[in-house]
Amino acid sequence: MTIDVKVPDIGDFSDVPVVTVLVSVGDVVAEEDPLIEVESDKATMEVPSPAAGKVVEIKVAEGDAVSEGSVILTLEADGGAAKEAIETSSPAAAPEAPAPAAPSAPAATPVAVTDAGFGKAHASPSVRAFARQLDVDLAKVNGSGRKGRILRDDVTAFLKSSAVAAPVAAGGQAGMGIPPIPAVEFSKFGKVENVDMPRIKKISGPALHRSWLNIPHVTHNEEADITELDGYRRELDAQAKQDGYRVTLLSFVIKASVSALKQHWEVNSSLHSDGDKLIKKDFFNIGFAADTPGGLMVPVIKDADRKGIIEISKDLVELSGKARDGKLKGDDMSGATFTISSLGGIGGTSFTPIVNAPEVAILGLTRSKMAPVWDGEAFVPRLMQPMSLSYDHRAIDGALAARFSATLKHLLSDLRRLML
């Protein structure tokens, strides 16, 4: 039986480029074998085969733009193995970093980027954009992907090797005035082993480094009395357990953060590229750091201002599960206007979270604790929640940061205000 294999539902993307054709005419494939790779600006996706069989005709080429329903090839399926057309299948998405990043240690002299190099390079549009922002000539990068395709990791590896080889500038400092960290041969002190970093850390590490170098970070610490809030949360959580989800403190902090962001819109903004304006956003998408076996990922709760505690709690459970299972798509991690990183389940008293550019602020939470609080007549035990707000001092000054934190504190301390 011969079937046309089509592009399945790939979310809100259309006219995405085919970056790799993984099969040839005559190839025998198994069900779920990848046939082509397409790449949006947020994620790389493999289109799997809906059935086992032989490739009869390929109807797309690398560089072609495809959308949902586009026919990519004709497959002679094994007897009885053909299923319904591939549009009912789901592509496997490999989440990418929300933003390209600068190298950990830039070379002293930037590499000249030529259009000729880019034209000959076998790389996806997002990798080309990544390389352009870092002034990397793709003609000089060796690709480790299928058919020699250049991946983000290849660009990062090229930068690292260039940085190591670059001569030290006058005064003993490398590019950007940052002295390089000297290499140490640790094996002379004892047994060592080189362990590959998870892919998520390879991608997010340079992005965090770029933010740290480019953003003047300041951290404001505050405490909120969540005694009454936690009692109410426990009531909701008891019911939620029966319905298959949980209500955590993070749900309330997200709700309170949205209210505080509405009152202090600058904390929800981004710096304009010209450096002279702030981009005021009339939407509230809250990112949250999710701990996964491969490292931290930041799913985003969209339109959090339109959702109540229960809906936010369900979103947290769903997105956290997708993060742990490696099933987040690009859209699940894009569009955040403010991020919350909670270490409450682990511990700590305060920390400095790194602002996730182009956002201008991020809230860090550590473990709540019982503490004696003076009520005017006596010390009484209260459950206090430490909060650490890191912010971009170019967009937010200390007074605004303090006002935002005070607003957030009062909202978390008074359930009546939080539920308005």
Question: Can you lay out the helices and strands and say which pair or pack?
Answer:
Layout (H helix, E strand, L loop, with lengths): L1 E5 L9 E6 L6 E2 L4 E6 L3 E6 L4 E6 L6 E2 L4 E7 L14 E4 L19 H6 L4 H9 L18 H14 L33 H16 L2 E9 L1 H16 L6 H15 L6 E2 L6 E2 L6 E3 L1 E3 L2 E3 L2 E2 L7 H16 L13 E5 L18 E5 L3 E6 L4 E14 L5 H16 L1 H4 L2
Parallel strand pairs: 13-17, 17-18
Antiparallel strand pairs: 1-8, 2-4, 2-7, 3-6, 4-5, 5-9, 6-8, 10-20, 11-12, 13-16, 14-15, 18-20, 19-20
Helix pairs in contact: 6-7, 6-8
What is the CATH C-level name of the largest domain? Alpha Beta
Helix/strand order, N-terminal first: EEEEEEEEEHHHHEHHEEEEEEHEEEEHH
- What name is given to the CATH topology of the largest domain? Chloramphenicol Acetyltransferase
Based on Cα principal axes, name the global outline.
Answer: globular
Mean pLDDT: 83
Quote the distance from N terminus to C terminus: 61 Å
- The number of helical runs is 9
Strand content: 15-25%
Approximate helicity band: 25-40%
How does this structure look, described?
The chain has 3 domains: 2-95, OB fold (Dihydrolipoamide Acetyltransferase, E2P) (Beta Barrel); 98-167 and 197-214, Dihydrolipoamide Transferase; 216-418, 2-Layer Sandwich (Chloramphenicol Acetyltransferase), CATH 3.30.559. It is built from 9 helices and 20 strands. The chain has helices spanning 115-120, 125-133, 152-165, 199-214, 227-242, 249-263, 309-324, 398-413, 415-418; strands at residues 2-6, 16-21, 28-29, 34-39, 43-48, 53-58, 65-66, 71-77, 92-95, 217-225, 270-271, 278-279, 286-288, 290-292, 295-297, 300-301, 338-342, 361-365, 369-374, 379-392. The strands form 5 sheets. Strands 10, 13, 16, 17, 18, 19 and 20 form a 7-stranded mixed sheet that branches. Strands 7-2-4-5-9 form a 5-stranded antiparallel sheet, with no helix packed on it. It has a 4-stranded antiparallel sheet with strand order 1-8-6-3, with no helix packed on it. The radius of gyration is 25 Å and the shape is globular. The N and C termini lie far apart (61 Å).
